[in-house]
Amino acid sequence: TLIATAPGVDITFGESWAQGTYPEWHVHAEMHEKHSISVDLDYFSHSLPLWTSSSRIINASEGNLASYILLGCNVTGKISLDGVVYEVTGKGFFEHSWSPFYVRKFLVDGWDRFYISLDNGWQIYISKYYPTPSSISSKLHKIITFGELVITPDGESITEFKTFDLKIKQKEKIFIFTKFPTSFSLSAEKKMNILLQQIDLKINLDITTKGTFQKIWKFPTYVGTKIGMCTVKGKISWRENSEEISLELNGYGIVWTTRALP
Q1: One domain for residues 195 and 157
Q2: In whole numbers, what is the pLDDT of the chain averaged over residues?
Q3: Is the pLDDT score of 23 beyond 70?
C-alpha cells in the first residue's frame, strides 16, 4: 500500500520511503528477494525549483495539478548489496508531480521521461506526455509538445525548449496491443538574444534504453511501466559571430516509460 501525506514529501511503500522539504530530502529503499539490497540517499538542492506546469499562474505550489524539477542535486549516501556497503556520491534529479485522479485516469495515455547526465557535466531533463486520445495528440505533437526539454551545465543556468520533437524509433511488445519504446531520436531548435546578439541553438540526440525493468498492472488499473538505464549520443550546435560551433554529446541516464493498457 502506498501512503502519502503533506506538506512536503512524505511517502511510504512497504519498507521503502522518502521524506523531506526543500532543499533536503532522504530516500530509503530496500528489497530482499534474490539479493538483499538497501539504499539510503540524501539529496540537497542548491538551486530553486523549475516549475514545468501548474494549474495556477501565481503560487504554483498551490495548484491542484503541478510539477517541478530540481537539476544538479548533490547526492550522498550508502548502498548495501548482500551485506557489502558502498559509499556513493554524485549528482541527481529531484522531480515532484501531482494531479487529480481523473487527470491520470482519463486524460493521460502515458509518458516518457529522461534524466540524463552528460560526460561534460551537463544535465538534460526530457518529459513528454501523451494525452488521450492518442489519435488526436499524435497529430498535434509538432504544434503542442505536451512536454519539457531542459539543459543545464550546473543546475542553475537553465535553457528551456518549449517545443521539441521526440520520435520513437524502435519498440518491443510487452502486452497485447501494447509496445514500449526501446530507442528515440530528439531534435530541437531555439533562438535566443544574448547581449543584443542572436544565437540559433540546435540539439539532436539518439537515446537507447538499456537494462530496463518492466511491470504490468492489470485489473483495475491496466497500466504498464518500464524503468532503467539509457545511453545518449548527439550534438549541440549554435551560430556565434557568423561561425558555426558544434559540440559532441555523450552520456547516460534514467528512462521512465508509462503507458495505459488497452
Answers
A1: yes
A2: 86
A3: yes
Reported as type and span, the H/E element at residue 160 is strand 159-161
**Residue 181 to residue 179: CA distance in whole angstroms:** 7
Q: How far, in Å, are 15, 107, 156, 227 from residue 73 at the CA level? A: 24, 31, 10, 20
* Nearest to 223, CA basis, from 48, 104, 133: 104
What's the one-letter identity of residue 18? A
Contacts of 1 (CB under 8 A, 6+ apart): 13
Structural domain total, the chain: 2
Q: What's the CA gap between 231 and 210, in Å, rounded?
A: 7
Q: Are residues 14 and 51 located together in one domain of the fold? A: yes
Q: Are residues 122 and 247 in the same domain?
A: yes
Q: What share of the chain is helix, strand, coil (3-state, %, to 5)?
A: 5, 70, 25
Q: How confident is the model at residue 45 (pLDDT cuts 50, 70, 90)?
A: very high
Same domain, 153 and 256: yes
Look up the pTM and report it.
Answer: 0.87
pLDDT tens digit sequence for 88-145: 999 899 998 887 765 656 677 889 999 999 999 999 999 998 887 655 555 555 555 6
Give the C-alpha separation, 146 to 8, whole Å.
26
**All 3 cell numbers of residue 30?**
530496500
| Range(s) of the domain holding residue 244 | 108-262
Comparing C-alpha atoms, which of 141, 132, 190, 149 is closest to residue 168? 141
Grid cell at residue 60 = 504554483
